[in-house]
Design a protein that fits this description.
This protein has 280 residues and is mainly α. The chain has 17 helices and no strands. Residues 5-12 have low confidence and may be disordered.
């Protein structure tokens, strides 16, 4: 969570001081109404207003106010990170990548680098995996004990098919933080891709307790690799129930039904897959 450093003594404006107290006491609607009255709109006012709108779930308005704050103090770290985080929430990774020089200039701030990595993953343009890898390597040179950055490095290497190297980074991430679900899930998938179905099965099985449908789907793939088709179908059916909008789950379930000789159900799932793929 991005820390917000705001102090009542920054402004003498009573409305600002009252709004700050409201913010600190989680009375965000009251804080917003007071901040709208403050004039002039200094950096502190803009930043607090943007942060307040974030808490109110008004991401579009928050970004507009945070852009103003950013223009007033272009290298303020908390304002820059909060702006980037809200842009990602609005699915605007290109705007975050445009901020890359400023985010990378926060050389001692791991969170700024993680926001950039998320932006490259979300954008998904040609060459973004390589750019993400280069960024992760630079970040790891600065933060060699970061579990999250090791996990991102493993993720990016998996995407390029460098499974052995991906495994090393993911295992190091888990040595640094054994309970993080993200590297546990990606490592299980790497093991599956390497053909270690038994080990992958146990790792996915442990992750199903989190309720993540990807863990169920991964467990189904591992079971299918062990020719335990009925069990694989049961797990993938649970994943589909949890995330019916995931087209890939329906496709895989269709293929498992076909392997089990359940042709009518296979056709049904294939049609659901095609319908979901046609949707914008």
């Amino acid at each position: 969570m991005i820390a917000i450093a705001l102090f009542a003594g920054l402004l003498a404006e009573p409305a600002y001081e009252q709004a700050l107290r409201d913010f600190q006491q989680n009375r965000y609607a009251e804080a917003e109404s007071k901040l709208r009255l403050v004039n002039p709109r200094t950096f502190s006012v803009q930043f607090l207003l943007g942060a307040t709108l974030v808490h109110l779930g008004k991401s579009e308005e928050a970004v507009a106010e945070l852009w103003v704050a950013h223009r007033l103090q272009p290298r303020h770290p908390d304002a820059l990170k909060l702006l980037a985080a809200e842009l990602l929430r609005l699915q605007r990774p290109r705007d975050v990548i445009a901020l890359q020089p400023k985010l990378e200039s926060l050389s001692r701030d791991e969170e700024a680098h993680l926001l950039l990595l998320q932006a490259y993953q979300d954008r998904g343009d040609s060459g973004d995996i390589e750019k993400g890898l280069a960024l992760a390597r630079r970040a790891l040179a600065r933060f060699p004990k970061s579990a999250q950055l090791h996990a991102w490095m493993g993720y990016e290497l998996r995407e390029t098919g460098q499974l052995a190297d991906a495994r090393k980074y993911l295992e190091q991430s888990l040595r640094l933080n054994p309970v993080d679900e993200f590297p546990r899930l990606i490592l299980a998938d790497v093991l599956l891709r390497q053909g270690h179905h038994e080990e992958a099965m146990h790792r996915f099985q442990a992750l199903t307790a989190t309720g993540n449908p990807e863990a169920r789907a991964g467990l189904a793939r591992a079971l299918a690799g062990l020719d335990r088709i009925d069990e694989a179908i049961a797990e993938l059916e649970k994943a589909v129930q949890k995330a019916p909008e995931q087209a890939q789950f329906h496709l895989e379930l269709s293929r498992l039904y076909a392997r089990a000789g359940r042709s009518e159900e296979a056709r049904r799932e294939a049609e659901i897959f095609r319908t979901l793929r046609r949707q914008p």
